[in-house]
């Protein structure tokens, strides 16, 4: 599943799957079991293992955390190079926040703003500066929970479908915020 | 992306991508743009289209809505066949609720319980009846927001990794709830 | 248990009531007692049984979970047949969410939108496309918690009274969303 | 539907149903349409009217507001007669709060406590003093949102099924609170 | 109990204070101590008793629960006499909800609406129908948490100062809602 | 009502009461009407004025803001004199926060802790160090929303009834926190 | 770090730092460790002590609690001198509430309003009366969580950068509220 | 204030301060004013500029965003090198989230867990594995909002005072999580 994953499952990984796993947890192990700790492909007959039929599965595409971090950092760098203090957020297509970077000196309103701009951009696959215009015909779109219709959000796409949104907040204008967000998107194509 | 998606992108689909899309929205169109309406693979030079480098992408696996509905329905049927009133929920690996079915006569506490049991099962890839035991060594696991450590949740896996959780609540015992949740999981392997 | 408790309780009623009940729950039984687990019609004089005077009761009408699921599925099918990715929700007259189906690829904003459209439609017994117009004279209706004044919600009625709402969100326009919601309503009359 | 409902529907009531209704709303009418304003049995062909098939419907039983108020008042009177300051709440089987009465001088913690005790009692159809004992075998039941496992809640049943819960909070002991809650239940059987 | 505690406490004061109190609570007594359980006017020198200097105190005026219930009931009766299904709420000057009555058949949106209308009326000591007009000059007043600027709320005053608000929601127009709310206010002057 | 209140009501104060007030609000006046701006005893016939019958009223006792501030400051001074960084909160008998002081360098957890300790102390009219012990017999008291059962809260009483709570958080021990809270209480008796 | 801090660290202060501290906590010490209890400059080799490189640090400027209290009190005094009942709040540049003073008789809406006005003023370093005008070009700024665009908030700056906001709410007009807020700011320059 | 800040303030920066700033905002400028855009030291007589007396100010120390990102990345790298999927969060001394990195494949419960572990570590300036032990004497510490008492959080200190917390969640044990968090702390000392 990742580059670190090996094909031959260790005994421990096998134990960590399903019913057997729980029984094997020692007294000193009190954290969470990593669900993906390894590919237990050869795991014998665990309750939950390997059984879902392929026709019942679909894939969704995400930025890797490496890419998302690089994009967020690029957006922040773009802001800092213009002496602006902003917060940057990356949200995936399911609406989950993947990366946040609260820039030095960014205002307290910027954190939540950045997250919501990113959410809004990925929801409708358009820059939030464009989505603001859409309110002219459907003003109540902005009442959808989690959204923010202010310039500063930009979508990230793969094969034409949205996979993430980058949101920036804290600059003196939404146009500036969005310029920085686009710099983040651009970092994914270099 | 789905069985309905065609390879040749319509004009409309192209228009619905990126900056161009927003400009093309007529006055009578006030809903949300479907981000995945089609595969705009040939879309020329849209701002957000096709540009993310493959090395920056990863895939995650989900149940189709058809499969998730079938599993939830199977869990509910199992409960009804034993004259129990329950709510069933399916949550994906990202924690998003995919399906909920509030069974006839299920108690008011069952809806949120079912969702949280499903969330808990998919988070640690184990039945919640097993996870309850884990609290002996780490009692504060149960303070993690969104979780509920009560029997009645079962994980769904593909290739050994968790992809969903099924939660059932409302029967007289958690053991019964979990029996029904497992019936839901079983429906995915037939 | 209290001064109202009489000695002539049926065995089952005794088990389900108060101290005895709790004691009877085995070590492996730690879930909730199903309040409706069976029809205890013959149970004589349990503390909580049968005693409310009929004049103090009223009935409310609900969709069965089978009907609600069928309606939601019909709405989702209508959307999929037009290649749209949406979430569908059914909410009852008391505002409780009964069914949710997050369609494959639906945007992250669609889930909460669908629930709120359904809530809004059943609250005022009108399609949300009509309710949007009502804001012209009472713009602050949209500030009522839980509502969303966007096309895509349709009421379900029985004998002229609203009993449920169906909400759809995620298509490129609210008009499309509402067309799918109406397909869900139509499934209840076939 | 209520004693006030007449069999012959007025023109206004007819207009207030479905699509027609919305169009008929004058500029001076900016509140909510009463969904149950009358029985529009003869309403001609409204979009949402009368069409749901009876096999798709089920009934749920509720206390009338008159009965719920009487019960709450009886509980409060019982407390006041013992010089105790409490809040009383009545919650229906769907978890909706129906009546609250914040007694003179009741502590600030009593309001939410009363609502949650009522919710808990109706969820499991048992007095909360009994449900507290159930935590011995399933301690995490108390983590279900909306519940409170403290004595002071009593269920109301009709034909053996729970239809409401009465919760009282604020007295020096939960035993007292529950005594008052039972006085509320008793008021429904006189 | 602390270094400030004196030895000459009355028996009752001792019981109600600190360690002794807790010990005195029997095994069956696990609720809250009623802070106002009696008038401990003669209690000498308890830690928390009688010591605040009168110059440091001010009084606020509230409706008794009897009056608040009567007003709420009058508002509900007024609605029912016109065949309208509404929820009624009474909120005190500190913003605390004192009484709620969810009328038979009232829409799910009405409960929170009624509470907020009452809150709004008592906050600005004016009927909400008047406060709506105030938004013309200060449109963002409606963004204050807890408020709702829709007709249907009426203030209750004593000696010219607001002491409570009555909110009604669920009728086809806010004007009707407010007529019923005023009927509630009127019940306090008879 | 306060020392600043005059007996002869100004024209403006009269205008600011009830229906008349709202009509009189000019375009430049877009804030909130001060509900208690003066004693409008002579106000002629306003809708909401002066009409509630005295038998329907009760009084509650509060600390003045001057007293509450003095008490909070005294608690903070006590902490600072021992080189501790804490937050102090004062909550009234209705649960409303009256004063908060976030001391220099107090930890981020201290603010909400202080408020909740104050709320808990005033709810049960006992120091929270004592209330902690009460959990032995009623462990779920601590699940009541808004409470925190940690030493550091002290009640303020007048004539034996609780009128406020003072909460302190941030010192290395709850015993220290509570010592500072008591210093706040003591400031009200000097 | 404060005027009370001594240069020579006591044994206790040393123990209270890092890993060593936790081990040293006796059974009677169950509160929070004051993170800043003293300057443990000579603390030997604690896990978390002294190691962050200076290049990785930045400073932010705050009002002392003494100054913030003085400013809040000055704002309240200004309101009281004009016979107005208001709540005053001070929020720092990170958005944390530092001081709140709920004035005698202030309306229930005023507390949250004051906090949000202060938050808004410090976020954009401008009086909220000015920020209201900014909505003409960016109306959705007001959808950012935590903000309130009503006159009554004033920023506090040091060397031109915002360090705090003072918010006032409850007077008959926002202009009055803001006049009082400015009086609070002025108290910091005397 | 940062390395980008220049000593001579541009005209634009001057305009962006206080009352003047707001007036100067053109129609095309609809974002937020950057409060710290430059050091307007020479700004003449702006309302809010430069006036706070130094005695009223204190400084707090923060990680730069560069350092916080480096620490978070180091923690994530440590996890990935052991094939673990985790989320990492950095929270500052005021409780604000500064950086979040949701690692590839981390469970849905890990995001909020990581933030809360970081919050807890910085609140008490100790690793959360140590703080867990503290619950033995003060079990209700874990009820403080925002905290999570599970191993995996580590404090960051400067001159012995806590300035940030790093939280990691998602590995099979809290011990592993904390090992990674410490790797993040270590990255700040190299």
Automatic annotation (TrEMBL), chains A, B, C, D, E, F, G, H:
Keyword set includes S-adenosyl-L-methionine: no
Which keywords accompany this UniProt record? Signal
**Sorted alphabetically, which InterPro entries does this protein's record hold?**
GlcG_carb_metab_protein, PduO/GlcC-like, PduO/GlcC-like_sf
SUPFAM superfamilies in the cross-refs: GlcG-like
Q: Which Gene3D superfamilies match?
A: Haem-degrading domain
Endoplasmic reticulum as UniProt keyword: no
Range of residues in the leader sequence: 1-37
The protein's name is: Heme-binding protein
């Amino acid at each position: 599943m990742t580059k670190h994953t090996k094909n031959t499952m260790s005994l421990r990984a096998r134990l960590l799957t399903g019913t057997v796993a729980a029984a094997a947890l020692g007294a000193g192990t009190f954290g969470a079991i990593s669900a993906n700790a390894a590919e237990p492909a050869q795991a014998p007959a665990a309750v939950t293992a390997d059984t879902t039929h392929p026709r019942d599965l679909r894939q969704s595409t995400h930025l890797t955390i490496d890419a998302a971090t690089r994009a967020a950092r690029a957006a922040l760098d773009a802001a800092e190079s213009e002496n602006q203090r902003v917060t940057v957020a990356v949200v995936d297509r399911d609406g989950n926040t993947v990366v946040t970077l609260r820039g030095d000196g960014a205002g307290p309103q910027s954190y939540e703003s950045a997250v919501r701009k990113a959410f809004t951009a990925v929801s409708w696959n358009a820059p939030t500066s464009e989505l603001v215009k859409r309110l002219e015909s459907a003003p109540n779109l902005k009442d959808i929970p989690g959204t923010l219709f202010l310039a500063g959000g930009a979508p990230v796409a793969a094969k034409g479908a949205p996979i993430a949104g980058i949101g920036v907040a804290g600059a003196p204008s939404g146009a500036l915020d969005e310029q920085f967000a686009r710099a983040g998107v651009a970092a994914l194509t270099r």
